[in-house]
Design goal:
Blueprint (H helix, E strand, L loop, with lengths): L15 H12 L1 H38 L2 H4 L2 E5 L5 E5 L6 E9 L5 E3 L32 E10 L7 E3 L5 E10 L5 E8 L11 E4 L5 E4 L9 E18 L5 E9 L4 H9 L5 E6 L4 E6 L12 E3 L18 E2 L4 E5 L2 E5 L3 E4 L2 E5 L8 E8 L1 H26 L12 H5 L3 H12 L7 H15 L22 E3 L9 E3 L1 H10 L1 H9 L10 H20 L10 H57 L1
Parallel strand pairs: 8-9
Antiparallel strand pairs: 1-21, 2-20, 3-17, 3-21, 4-14, 4-16, 5-11, 6-10, 7-8, 7-11, 9-10, 11-12, 11-15, 13-14, 17-18, 19-20, 22-23
Helix pairs in contact: 1-12, 2-5, 2-11, 2-12, 5-9, 8-11, 9-10
Amino acid sequence: MVDSIRFSGLASGMDTQAIVDSMMRASRLPLDRLQQQKQVLEWKRDDYREMNTALKNFDTFLFDNIYKQSKMLAKTVTSSNESVATATANAQAANNTFELKDVTLAKAAQRTSGSPISVNSANKIDPSKSLWSQRAKFAKSITWQQEHKSEDFTVPKGGGSAINLQNKAISDVEDIKVYDTEGNLVKTYAVTYDTPPNPSDPDTAYVNQETGQITFGGDKLTEDYTFKVNYKNNFLEFNAETFNEDGTQNSIAFKVDGTTSLNRMLSDINNSNAGINIFYDSGSDKVVATRKETGNFTDGTEINFTGASSGFFMGEDSNLQLNSEIAGADATFTINGLQTSRKSNTFTINDVTISLKRNISGDESVTISTKNDADSTYNSIKEFVDKYNELLDKMNGKLTEERYRSFTPLTNEQKGAMKDKEIEQWEEKAKSGLLKRDSLLTSGLGKFRIDLYTEVKVNDVTRTDKDYNQLAEIGIKTTKNYLDRGKIEIDELKLKEAIEKNPEAVYQLFMADGPTYGEQGLARRLRKSIDETMLKVEEKAGNIYKTEQGYSMGKDLVRINSDINSWEERLKQIEQRYWNQFNAMEKAMQQMNNQSNQLMAQLGSMQQR
């Protein structure tokens, strides 16, 4: 908008604004063409990016499905009696049958309190409250470890009547001394634990052993005075010990403050690498500690608590009374006539993972069978064909889309004269065909077809069967309808026959990993060609992460935007020039009108004389 005073036909009576707008319409044509070029470029860029999204989605599908042996070489496993044993198998498992007899399940070592741990059934411990607060409720007295602590406090502005020690579960406050701002000893407080101090007794301090709070009698403490408190706090320190499968000891150290609850302490043990599950049962008032792993790992006891506070767990006068242990045991069984054992009830043999569920003996047995999951492999390949055809539909759709050259992007003025539906229909045609016969996409499709139809070389590297080294040999061919433009279809019977006969060869047809192009499987070739095509498209059309200077179409957009800005400035100058000319004309006409009026006035006065 030009900032100047404009006279719109005051003297001439003309609609100056309409005249200027009409004159500017022709001047704006180059700007309109630039804005249309920009719009077409942005639409085309977006079409390219849409194609790259489709390519990326297909590439991701290949990696997540065709590349995975768990999908292309899936196995089915059956158990003749799942109440005795179940099983799973990975893709490497051979088709096999296992007969299991004389099964005895593995057991984990366990310790249980020999007697209730509370002083009596009417006064049981509360496992959610601190050990210090519950100390009198244990049947046996807790032997605490103690640390000497010293803390300094400065009274804040406004004074105060209490301080909080950093540590809690206090057994003994040795002394509380107060120093003035010069460092001189002012007072040594007497300490009491049982009752709060008399508010009028300025020489007594009450210590809450549970919380570590010290409350002072008398008036408020003097601000900026320093308190030095020497005290002892209570804690437990111990090691939880088990044994590894190789017989080495696994020991985890713990230090538990007296303010910690029994539940929290046992939870800390559970969450550590000690390999122990331990809990308190309020019903029986006992603690149970069980190894997380089944099996026998040592000739001696497998769960031990050692260290300064081991007496809290084990020993004649221990608090938890975990004194006796039921030893762990390995699982034993006979498999296909071989008597053997395992530490765990779940174990793997020849890539088949078997889970034992209960003991059996005598003539009772269970049979585990593995075979190829042909349906899973077929479904994966069928999905590959469907996804590939979807990709062709999208790419060929853009490559063959009709181009309506007479439908150029609408200017703002044109949009203002149209309805929303008319604008939508117009722009649909204006966007159509921007990638018609595009060389980048056409080249990519050509590579994909070569990748699929070039046979995979048969050698020791590829592990491909000579009978199944081309798609046609497993029942996948190009459709006969030329309008499908390269789509592929499945001969279901032939594909299923190939999968049943040699699933590994079918997998290698897609996934062979040789050093040369000819030795690579079809899916590997496709992913490489997809990557190359996407890279070329990104070099031309960029992506959401690239700046406009980072790809060729972006650089074109930068140039066009610069030209648009230049033209907008130029149009402002042209419009201003037109207005200046009309303003000058209006002023001249106004002057002529004034002179004419003066002349007429003079003539009128002469006639009156």
